[in-house]
Amino acid sequence: MKSTSRREFLVASAASGIVLSGCRAQTNADWVKYSGNPVLGGSLGTCFDICVLKVAEGFRMWFSWRPQKSVARTDSPDGIHWSKPEIAIGPVPGSAWEQNVDRPVVVERADGLHMWYTGQNDKQSFIGYARSSDGVVWQRVQTDPVLLPASLWEGVAVMAPHVMWDEEMKLFRMWYSGGEQFEPNAIGYATSADGIHWERRQGNPVLRPDPAISWEKERVTAAQVVKHGSEYYAFYIGFRDVNHAAIGIARSQDGITNWERHPLNPIIDSSLMGWDHSACYKPYAIYDKDRWMLWYNGRANGKEQIGLATHMGQDLGFPRSHSL
Known about the structure:
The chain is mainly β. The chain has a domain at 48-252: 5 Propeller (Tachylectin-2, Chain A), CATH 2.115.10.20. 3% of the residues lie in helices and 47% in strands. The chain is built from one helix and 20 strands. The protein has one helix at residues 6-16, and strands at residues 32-33, 47-55, 58-65, 70-76, 86-89, 100-109, 112-120, 125-132, 139-140, 157-166, 171-179, 184-192, 199-200, 219-228, 231-241, 244-252, 260-261, 279-288, 291-300, 303-312. The strands form five sheets. It has a four-stranded antiparallel β-sheet with strand order 1-20-19-18, with no helix packed on it. Strand 3 (58-65) and strand 4 form a beta hairpin. The chain is globular, with a radius of gyration of 19 Å. The two termini are 34 Å apart.
């Protein structure tokens, strides 16, 4: 009788709809959590929803720093040991929409660094835009948000933008979350030539929860979209309910339509105990030196901190033959 690997067994189980009662893997598809997690948090208080760039000295992270109601910057030579954070973008006293700022994404081009971030008041969330020449000092491009909730599915909040510059299209491409204020419900797509004026895609949202998939049936949010090779990969959060979340991957040929979920999702789930036992949120992945490095924020009860998971090799384990 042919032996069956754990991966083959899980794929077959998923395809047949088998639920392994009482069995929850902390990681799947050859992802491994760093044994020294969390890598950022502790005395800093809640740190969450991050963006990381590879720089000459190692890595630079911008993260949401809840006690400061700000986006902060920190540097690391290895992605594990991080410098004392400094505030990059803070709240604006008296602002109608920037009482808290968080959930950033940073894009580097020849003309400098571009940041889109979430501005929040008690009831709504918006997306703002700032620029920097060095990644340290930032200037808001305008006092108003560049994206406001407007469509029915966006509800009261647009937040958690992920943006890439498409040189061929000469456009900024944004994937953003919309819906409820506490946790948004789905992911939309918009484009802009200048980073300020955005055109939403008709037919949004482009990625929504699948009610047939237990771990993401409630909502999907906060996608980081990476073009790797000829395909686009979305690292995203799936919620089984509003308080419990895990991380999955989907792929698409154009980054907009026909998203195919990874057969072993979720790739990162909460631990049975410890710093991320309640939920795993907001992935941000970089392929560097023959491995993927993925930072995420984990929650234990009410506190969130940032951890790291890795995956050796560039092949993320999707089936080789597929129809997108």
